[in-house]
Amino acid sequence: MTALKAFLHDNLQGDPRHPHASSTLPISILAKMGILHYYLPLSAPSSYKEVNDLASARAYANRDIITISPSAMGCAYDNNIQMFYKEHMHEDEEIRCIFEGGGFFDVRDEEDRWVRIQVGSGDLLILPAGIYHRFMVDEGDQYVKAMRLFKNHPKWTALYRGEETEKSEVRK
């Protein structure tokens, strides 16, 4: 079963790996923000076909697997996790399929509030191009293994929030 939950972020200082949930939101709020969610029971062989079909339908030609954890990233872990947690956007959709572990995608709503989305194994999330967001592993194992899908070559180009990103065509 999916671990997906949505909350308004409490905006309190503290460890970003903690839930920081103030009020629970209906999952339907995500669709209103242009965010798509699929639950794929990864033990079922058909789940990988669903990922392939989805990638094909959305013209995603490449993918890679990323493992975010202190043991997998070594001394680069702290820098990487800070980079993922800094508010940014992308010019393409961001598609992530969580294989193992869990974490939080924080996305800005139309009122510029943080909506925290808790994801776990089997959750596939599609964030629209131009949506400000950030990611953090959860407080448990501090571990996520996920598939990232890309239209072209695997790349992760973050455009950090600022005057230039506000003018971007994908923000309109």
Please outline the major beta sheet.
9 strands, antiparallel
Count of DSSP H/I helices: 5
Report the uncertain regions.
none
What would the average pLDDT be, to the nearest integer? 91
Q: Helix and strand string, N-terminal first?
A: EEHEHEHHEEEEEEEH
Q: How many strands?
A: 11
For the record, give the distance between the C-alpha atoms at the N and C termini, rounded to a whole number: 35 Å
Strand portion: 35-45%
Percent range for helical residues?
10-25%
**Shape assignment:** globular
What is the alpha-carbon Rg in Å?
Answer: 15 Å
Structure overview:
There is one protein chain. By secondary structure, the protein is an alpha+beta fold. It is 20% helix and 37% strand. A hairpin with a 5-residue loop joins strand 6 and strand 7. The longest helix has 13 residues. The radius of gyration is 15 Å and the shape is globular. It starts with a strand and ends in a 6-residue tail after the last helix. The mean pLDDT is 91.
Write the layout of secondary structure elements.
Layout: E1 5-9, E2 21-25, H1 28-32, E3 36-39, H2 45-57, E4 62-68, H3 70-73, H4 77-85, E5 88-89, E6 94-108, E7 114-120, E8 123-127, E9 133-137, E10 144-150, E11 159-160, H5 163-166
Brief rundown of the structure:
With 172 residues, the chain is an alpha+beta fold. It has helices at residues 28-32, 45-57, 70-73, 77-85, 163-166, and strands spanning 5-9, 21-25, 36-39, 62-68, 88-89, 94-108, 114-120, 123-127, 133-137, 144-150, 159-160. The termini are far apart.
